[in-house]
Amino acid sequence: MSLTRVHNFSISLDGFGTGEELTLDAPFGHAGHVLHEWMFTTRFWHQMTGGTGGTGGIDDAFAQQFAPGIGAEIMGAGKFGPPGWHEDPEWKGWWGPNPPFHTPTFVLTHHPRPPIEMEGGTTFHFLDTSPAEALEAARKAADGQDVRIGGGPTVVRDFLAAGLIDQLHVVVVPVLLGRGVRLWDGLEGVQKDYEVEATSSPTGVTHVTFTRASG
């Protein structure tokens, strides 16, 4: 069976995956881009945004694992758009006409709408359903490849709580946000189900990987 994976999911030292006060101009709220600055200099980011150059090293090696083998993505409503996006029938996500997913992408929302076909192979599907049912739909669309859980923190937490994540890559950024949406709330002891490894980067972030323990 295909795997369910999370990649490049950044959190603060105090466990927040996003800040408060999310708006159209501030997709991560008061956190700004501080949780993702480690990624912006990598070759991966330059390639994904249509540029050239960028740094190699530890951060790039982890970031590059984002796409290979992925056949579908699941994301939450908060990743697809700012609060109230469902009231705008023209809203098609943050990413312009050619989003970086290039696969069927399932948006979990209480306000479903018809699918939106974008350039580059991304089609957004909107579901009001449970994590298990969303994963079943995504696996069918992935056609034997893996499914990526794209965030935000509430969606990743819900899939972890349901025991549906096989591989989790968390990037711990050395900042304190103080408020926002935390990843780990209610997941005490979840590490017992995984083999956990940590790799420190010269940029100051720590890459923590959780791989479901065999047996």
Low-confidence stretches: none
Q: Can you count the helices?
A: 6
N- to C-terminal distance: 15 Å
Mean of residue pLDDT values:
96
* Neighbour order of strands in the largest sheet: 5-6-4-3-7-1-8-11-10
Strand content: 25-35%
**Category from helices, strands and their pairing:** alpha/beta
Largest sheet: 9 strands, mixed
What overall geometry do the principal axes of the alpha carbons give?
Answer: globular
State the order of secondary-structure elements, H for helix, E for strand.
Answer: EEHHHEHEEEHEHEEEE
Helix content class: 10-25%
Rg estimate, integer Å: 16 Å
Describe this structure as you would to a colleague:
- With 215 residues, this protein is an alpha/beta fold.
- 33% of the residues are buried.
List key phrases describing it:
215 residues, 9-stranded mixed sheet, two-stranded antiparallel sheet, alpha/beta
Topology summary:
Blueprint: E1 4-12, E2 16-18, H1 37-40, H2 43-48, H3 57-63, E3 70-76, H4 77-80, E4 104-108, E5 116-117, E6 123-127, H5 131-142, E7 146-151, H6 153-161, E8 167-173, E9 181-182, E10 194-200, E11 206-212
Parallel strand pairs: 1-7, 1-8, 3-4, 3-7, 4-6
Antiparallel strand pairs: 2-9, 5-6, 8-11, 10-11
Condensed summary:
The chain has 215 residues and is of the alpha/beta class. The protein is 20% helix and 28% strand.
